[in-house]
Design a protein that fits this description.
The chain is mainly alpha-helical. β2 and β3 form a beta hairpin. α2 runs antiparallel to α5 and α22 runs antiparallel to α23. The chain starts with a helix and ends with a strand. The chain is built from 25 helices and four strands.
Length: about 475
Amino acid sequence: MSSLTFSLFSSPTLIFLLAFLLRTVLLVYGIYQDSVSALKYTDIDYYVFTDAARAVSRGSSPYDRATYRYTPLLAWILLPTSWGGLWFNSGKALFAVSDLVAGGLIMILLKRRGLQEHKALRYACVWLLNPMVANISTRGSSEGFLCVLVMALLWAFETRQIALAGVLLGLSVHFKIYPFIYGISMLWALESNTARSSSNTMLQNALRFLNADRILLVSTSLLTFIALNVLMYNIYGAPFLQHTFFHHVTRIDHRHNFSPYNTLLYLSSAQKANKAVHGLASSFSFEALAFVPQLLLSTILIPLAIAKEDLPRTLLAQTLAFVTFNKVCTSQYFLWYLIFLPLYLPNSSLIAQTRLGATALALWLLGQAVWLQQGYDLEFLSKSTFVPGLFASSLAFFVINCWILGIIVADVTNTSAGTRTDIATLSQPSKSDRVLVMPTANDRASTSSEDKGKTSEGRSRGKSIVDMNDISNVHLGPRNRVLKSS
């Protein structure tokens, strides 16, 4: 069985073929289920995407389709879905293929981190053969396409192609807002090689921070982001800004929402439906305040703490924090951080401690299952499960994610602390590891007469004794050779 497993994971062609077949089966099954069942396999967002693409194909704005809250680029990319017939599912196929491309980039990044191909392939399977990832993409979620951009961004950054990384960062943020948090970590990781000095002034430290790579990353990402936004604004006007960016600040979405804010959003939406109540509550909007803990953690605290230690792990921690603390959290958002999981696992405590890893996975899946059961009762059986069922399950899933986030951050800090401890230990050897450095000719010539008078039987050196009886039988090699004492 072990030889079969090894041969399986030693063949990238076979793994990618299995990943392709998994998505093909799900895609075909989805088409069949949509044709015979009232419960559709296709995600509701895919209908929004394709309706917007159909509007664009007719020369209209994608924002003519209500609830389209994305960049027009997505509607442009999905134009073939408006051709009718099986072309309607071409967007799903594109997102499924994007999964495979992202898996290939994961393989490249893992091998750059020193893993052999069969080990890199094994960890890449966490993404490639993950049924949740395949299901979400074949249902028509565009997250797989975004994950390709994010992995390409990380690859460009780690290969020191800073200008390309900046372009990909600007494109990613235009496509979906959240990747802007990665720019903070990348800037912090681009440390200057100039030696630090405590006597430097604030101006000197600021100038030192603004090194060439940081300036290049910021300028290319901003230019790309601004150019795309100006282009879209010139074509579609104010609706582009409103639906693509501003809408997310005050967004209220309590359906399919794992966030602990779910119940509060439901109550807030009810208040806004009642104009009299909404007028009283308009002075306070927790929807905007919900960003405070989310952004504080994902854009400031985590990058400053660990970005210089391990960038891929930092991006995982940032994304998990961003999704966990977001006021809207759906299953598609899980892909935002699952894409980084194969890069984290090889040296993680979740793998080193099997029981810990199994517990984390079981709790993460159980938290979703409990929430989905409550959501099913609410939406399909019309049972009022908001309190305590849905609210309690949301809080439980939130706590589970926070616990896993703590493990990830601790892994990075412990790894870096262990490295520093090892260096410190090597620089300060214990008494048992003291060394004898053979003196040079000049040192021997300057030896005092008092030292010459000492017997050859033994020489006292502090509290240690070096036996000199058999010194003539020891090959000393070149001068200045360092010998460990016994």
